[in-house]
Amino acid sequence: MDNIILEMRGITKTFPGVKALDNVNLKVHEGEIHALVGENGAGKSTLMKVLSGVYPAGTYDGEIHYDREVRNFSTISDSEHLGIIIIHQELALVPLLSIAENIFLGNEIATNGVIDWKQTFARTQGLLEKVGLKEPPSARITDIGVGKQQLVEIAKALSKKVRLLILDEPTASLNETDSDALLKLLMEFRKQGMTSIIISHKLNEIKKVADKITILRDGGTVETLNCHNEDISEDRIIKGMVGRDMEDRYPPREPKIGETLMEVKNWNVFHQQHRDRQFLHDINFNVRAGEVVGIAGLMGAGRTETAMSIFGKSWGHKITGEVHMHGKLVDVSTIPRAIEAGLAYVTEDRKQLGLVLNNNIMHNTTLANLGAVASSGVIDDHMERKVATDYRTKLRIRSHSIYQETVNLSGGNQQKVVLSKWLFTTPEVLILDEPTRGIDVGAKYEIYTIINQLAAEGKGILMISSEMPELLGTCDRIYVMNEGRIVAELSKAEASQESIMRAIMRSGEKH
Amino acid sequence: MVAETSAPKTTPSIGEYLKNNIREYGLLVALVVIMLFFQYLTDGVLFRPVNLTNLILQNSFIVIMALGMLLIIVAGHIDLSVGSIVAFTGGLSAIMLVKWGIHYSIVVPLCLILGGLVGAAQGYWVAYQKIPAFIVTLAGMLVFRGLTYLILQNRPIGPFPKDFQSLSTGFVPDFLYFLNPAPDTIVNFFSLVVVVALVALAIYYGLRDRRTNEKHGTENEPFAFFAGQMFIIAAVAIFLGYQLSTYKGFPNVLVVMALLIALYTFVTTRSTIGRRIYAMGGNEKAAKLSGINTERLTFYTFVNMGVLAALAGMIIAARLNSATPKAGVGFELDVIAACFIGGASASGGVGKITGAVIGALIMGVMNNGMSIMGLGIDYQQLVKGLVLLAAVFFDVYNKNKG
């Protein structure tokens, strides 16, 4: 075992308030396909960013040995120069340029700044043959499908003389045929001696191609499994991914569950951009008074899209289905109507969608229900001030005053301002989309406490989260979504990380 | 976990306060400095009663349009077509008044409505079809200039009836002439009384606001600051009011302008509509997800701009006593520059009515002062351009520093 191409030793990477990677070790042998698995937030992408120089040497602790030498990459081009190429989940192609232009973007075949188109096209043709893509080099990226775009990315990597190819969720947006073709290509490359690291949630695919599997959990390495020594079952992998102790990170709560508040029936939605593709299929769920209901699923499962399409049809088109509140059909076709019906939606992205960052706490607090602090269109300063002060005290928003601009608040306090805004609309059902993303442990506990209080007041909470322990720690009932469908409904007793993962994996294999 | 609920500070130190509000005071100080500078360079012509009156007449329409433009810029858009709308509505009013002989009491409201329709025609494309305002209003600029040439058949129309002219060139009569203590120097005693009364009112309301703020535990500016500011504003206002009263008193347009400034200040600071425009300009997606009808709001800011541009168009036509196809060429640039000098942000969400008004006055004083000095249009443009750049640089510098 001396043909180690890459060894990452003791990698530790901290962001303000969060340890994203803690003493991670990874050993990759030349010519193998090495899979990297773990839950959302386990640290897979961060590790690959450290490797490729997105986070330059010096911003992390630990050593990277590549080709038997210690490497300190300070930019992506440093790592690319040595043949380490990363293909991100969101493809980095320019949609309106041709395949050839994209492949040689930033790396043009040119003399004195004049591009040699003949050679560019000839070499593109050669690369496309290698990846088995039958499109002319002059085709525009926007005109070819996602599967083919993925192949263009790989061709681009080949053009840079790749030795270690890293693929981040390469098949997440591909259908089965395209996924199969891609995996076959990887196996083909393995025969030619190329090494690849593949990050994926699709365990069945990993089983098919991987030689080794390294499992990450909570920013640390759990284990590396060798697929040639033993037969690795999916359950074995899942156990490694989720096997952590549930600490006392969630405030206790005694649920008092009442009547059904909200019911969504036969909800079907087509994709916002790809207009002929159905994205959500027959979604049915309900939320009862005093109940915290979770929606679990992997990224891209359609959770946020479900919430947004219900909340004033803010996402998707050709939306069909019914929303009932207290057993009565309600109109949620616009956001004001959805608010009127008693819904509130705390967005996933606080900064882009939740707050007006250059406005102060007070202005953000009253924004969604400005009419309540105004008469005949004139704002009552004193009433507005009182409302903002009340919420600031109630939710313990840490700030100099209610006049502080929200851009200067910490993530946890920003989230509390967004919550204030929606609580002031006096909703019956609150949809919380990743309510604790990017905020520290202490603030998370406070958010959970607020959620418990709201449930105790008889409100219904629908919580979308990618952190399974969070859902298990706070929810009375959990729906599992995958590929635009609700694939399981689990009671508190049934729900566990294994049962959720299993529901996702099984449904994935059916399609 | 204990929240750091320290008692809100009611009296920040003067230095701290100045640092936080440097933009607003800086602008006011800049205006005063520029005025004194030109007063000196023009050997005292600038503050002469006749010239002050001219200054108001020449700049009223820029100020009026800056009010609407500020809302558009705060909403995150721009309107390049106002110069053409000025010419178009001016032309329409001339045709109705001069050619068709319709009374001005019908023509004025009708032209305001037409201006609103012009704004609506542009606002529709921006708000509902999501075409960038820069492109829509660039098209509008060409279209309405072209239409102006068409309806005027390439020729100026005039003169206007006297009563319409007086909208722009008339003065508020001296209702209190019988009380005038010094008829030899003061020509219009009423205007002086009004200025003094307004200053008294401003001080009264300022003090009352401070008291209610104290009662509610809200931050007040330091008293020395309040007093100093009030003193300067009062002194300047009474001085200017006195100067005007020794000539003909208040021009009618000054009254229109003052009322509109008051109205738009109120709308931007106190009304739900104003608040929503700022929120939309600050983060359109967040505003929309908070239940604000951003399309309708954008649409109406353009309608509003159209109405104000129509008003400006009639004021200009009345002042020149003729409607010409070339009226208002380049005005959009002065109006937009006024907003940016006044501290509005090109990315939306930031800007104040008072800033835009002071910005317009800075531009106006510079135009007027340089004209008196006999500087050509070449130097005038050059200086105005540099002042605009300097003002915006000052903003960016402050932002990066803080």
Question: Which tags fit this structure?
Answer:
heterodimer, A: 511 residues, alpha/beta, Rossmann fold, six-stranded mixed beta sheet, 33% helix, B: 402 residues, mainly alpha, ABC transporter involved in vitamin B12 uptake, BtuC, 0% strand, globular
Walk me through what this model shows.
The complex is a heterodimer of chains A (511) and B (402). Chain A is α/β, with parallel strands linked by helices. Chain A contains 17 helices and 24 strands. A six-stranded mixed sheet of chain A has the order 6-9-10-3-11-12, with helices on both faces. Chain A has a six-stranded mixed sheet with strand order 18-21-22-15-23-24, sandwiched between helices. In chain A, strands 2-1-4-5 form a four-stranded antiparallel sheet, with helices on one face. Chain A is globular. The relative contact order of chain A is 0.10. With 402 residues, chain B is an all-alpha fold. Chain B has two domains: 22-167 and 274-401, ABC transporter involved in vitamin B12 uptake, BtuC (Orthogonal Bundle), CATH 1.10.3470; 171-250, no CATH class. Chain B has helices at residues 14-20, 22-41, 49-74, 82-99, 104-127, 133-152, 162-169, 189-215, 223-245, 252-270, 272-282, 284-289, 294-320, 331-341, 353-372, 377-401. Chain B is globular and about 60 Å long. Chain B starts with 13 loop residues before the first helix and ends with a helix. In chain B, 40% of the residues are buried. The chains are: A alpha/beta (511), B mainly alpha (402). At the A-B interface, helix 10, helix 11, strand 20 and helix 13 of A face helix 11 and helix 12 of B.
